[in-house]
From TrEMBL:
Organism this protein belongs to: Phaseolus vulgaris
GO biological process: fructose 6-phosphate metabolic process
Cofactors that this protein relies on: Mg(2+)
Protein name, per record: Phosphofructokinase domain-containing protein
Superkingdom classification of source: Eukaryota
Claim: Kinase is one of the keywords in the record: yes
Pfam families named in the record: PFK (PF00365)
InterPro entries the UniProt entry points to: ATP_PFK, PFKA, Phosphofructokinase_dom, PKF_sf
Domain Phosphofructokinase: 96-205
Protein keywords: Allosteric enzyme, Kinase, Magnesium, Metal-binding, Transferase
Signal peptide: none
Length: 210
């Protein structure tokens, strides 16, 4: 790859033959010499087949699948999927899940899959449910989520975590995340929710950089 330009929103990497990677921010952009650890999936017999399908760090997916032989390689995106190395030890993870905005089918299923995936696949035992959407971050209403707690929630409508619409205090949210020692945040919602997540990220990065 020949050159790269980055900002808080998007990293553009240029390579040979018109290759362009629209990348996303990563821990290592802000924390130098960040240690890595073997992915717990490697030693989990229930997921031994996954070892064959770890995603290489340089794997990307093209925006345009069909091209002509003389076309530039074009825009690519970072490929998602499990890596051989992770950036958290299982015992160090304190995750939280929040649902925001309007209701839609399957919210409880998403919550259940995150909790069970973290627990069974990655050995994570500390998962907190934020009650009441973004504003729930600065209230004391939380739910400790375990596979037992979420076992049958996919059979119910709505979201067991509750939700809310409208404005929120981003500073209070970031303070709450920091005060609770949360280091993984799973935000479930639509366009407005994701815009809010981007603002939370930006404020959090400012604090980290400071």
């Amino acid at each position: 790859m020949a050159s790269s330009d980055s900002d808080s929103q998007l990293k553009i990497v240029h390579g040979d033959a018109g290759y362009i990677l629209e990348d996303v921010p990563h821990f290592t952009d802000y924390i130098l010499n960040l240690p890595t650890y073997p992915n717990p999936l490697r030693s989990n017999p229930a997921y031994s087949v996954v070892k064959q399908y770890f995603v290489h760090m340089d794997d990307t997916v093209p925006q345009k699948v069909v091209v002509h032989k003389d076309s530039p390689r074009g825009v690519h995106f970072r490929r998602a999927g499990p890596r051989q190395k992770v950036y958290f030890k299982s015992d160090d993870v304190h995750a939280c899940i929040v649902t925001c905005g309007g209701l839609c089918p399957g919210l409880n299923t998403v919550i259940r899959e995150i909790v069970c995936g973290l627990s069974y696949m990655y050995g994570v035992n500390k998962v907190l449910g934020i009650d009441g959407g973004y504003r729930g971050f600065y209230s004391k209403n939380t739910i400790n989520l375990t596979p037992k707690v979420v076992n049958d929630i996919h059979k119910r409508g709505g979201t067991i975590l509750g939700t809310s619409r409208g404005g929120h205090d981003t500073g209070k949210i970031v303070d709450s995340i920091q005060d609770r020692g949360i280091n993984q945040v799973y935000i479930i919602g639509g366009d407005g929710t994701q815009r809010g997540a981007a603002v939370i990220y930006e404020v959090g990065i400012e604090i980290l950089s400071f």
